[in-house]
Amino acid sequence: MSITNKERFGRLGPFLIVVPTLTVVGGLGFSVRGGFGAALIAGGAGLGWGLFLGFIATRLARRESRRPASANVSVFLAALGSGLLAGGALLEMMLLSAGLGTPSTTFTMIHPPFGDSFNLFIITLNSLMEWLLIPAALFLNWHIPKRRTLIVIAAVVFYAMRIWTYVYFVPNIFEFATIPPDGPFSAELVERFRLWVNLSWFRLGVDVLTNLLFLLAAFVPASANGTFRKLAGEKEVEKVAQSA
Predict the structure, then answer these.
(1) How far, in Å, CA of 34 to CA of 22, rounded?
(2) How far is CA 24 from CA 59, 73, 124, 159, 169, in A?
(3) CA angle in degrees (0–180, nearest 5) for 4-140-10
(4) 123-134 CB burial, b ≥16 within 10 A, e <16
(5) pLDDT at 35
(6) Given a cut of 50, is residue 225 above it in pLDDT?
(7) Do residues 61 and 140 make contact, with C-beta atoms less than 8 angstroms apart?
(8) What is the separation of C-alpha 25 from the centre of its chain, rounded to a whole number of angstroms?
(9) Under 8 Å CB-to-CB from 227, ≥6 apart: which residues?
(10) Could you tell me if residue 44 is inside a domain?
(11) What whole-number distance in Å separates Cα of residue 215 and Cα of residue 83?
(12) How many domains does the chain have?
């Protein structure tokens, strides 16, 4: 890859991942309840938000002294957010699985007061990861190859899970939430809910994997590839050449 192509990849690489992803995920997320019109608006908002985040990250990266700190903070926050998300999801899955064992409590956990509290917690953290923490980590760590690889993998598995969530899990949980918690429940409905809960364990696995990948990325030094030292050295060479 030529120097020019590397520079273009360095500038445009994170945009090519973040902007299309937020456009698609935003459109899918709002289409569940709002239909095609809401999907178009949310997709446009996702496109604009991705470009805006990229603009802010580019501004932060202009000062080399700030680049390591910005990269570290973004990774640490993503690791913290994904860890809290995995912990909350584990507790929710344990409660839902326990509820499956007793027919009278099968749907209790998705109704107030339990359902509202857990839903608010999980939705808030998923939204932060989806719209802010992962995109920021991509933009601010793109120049660090080892971190970039780990964060890209984390982003791919996380957003794939979010797409699956909007296509299958969200429509079904909205339907289940309309069912009175005291029944009666048909055998077919209980089996559908059981499948929904069992498949949700895969989502928990993705949350745990995402957290592990960000933790691994956090242990990669922000200047591991010598980028900052190299750039500083190049500038000194240019000054000497100009003064000669």
Answers:
(1) 17
(2) 26, 27, 19, 10, 17
(3) 10
(4) eebbebbbbbbb
(5) 86
(6) no
(7) yes
(8) 10
(9) 143, 144
(10) no
(11) 9
(12) 1
pLDDT at 7 > cutoff 60: no
pLDDT at 234: 44
pTM: 0.85
Backbone angles phi and psi of 38, in degrees to 5: -65, -35
Q: Is residue 41 in some structural domain?
A: no
Q: Tell me if residue 72 falls in helix, strand or coil.
A: helix
Domain range spanning residue 192?
64-243
Between 70 and 11, the higher pLDDT residue: 70
Element (H, E) at 66: none
Q: Is the pLDDT of residue 239 over 80?
A: no
What's the whole-number mean pLDDT along residues 179-202?
86
Q: Answer whether residue 21 is part of any domain.
A: no
Section 208-221 average pLDDT = 97
- The answer to whether residues 226 and 143 touch, using CB atoms and an 8 Å cutoff, is no
Instruction: Look at residue 64 in the predicted model and tell me its pLDDT.
Output: 81
- Provide the CA 1 distance to its chain's centre, in angstroms: 30
pLDDT beyond 60 at 42: yes
The owner of tokens 């939705």 is 123
CB neighbour list of residue 109: distance below 8 Å, 6 or more residues apart: 92, 95, 96, 99, 115, 118
Within a domain: 189: yes
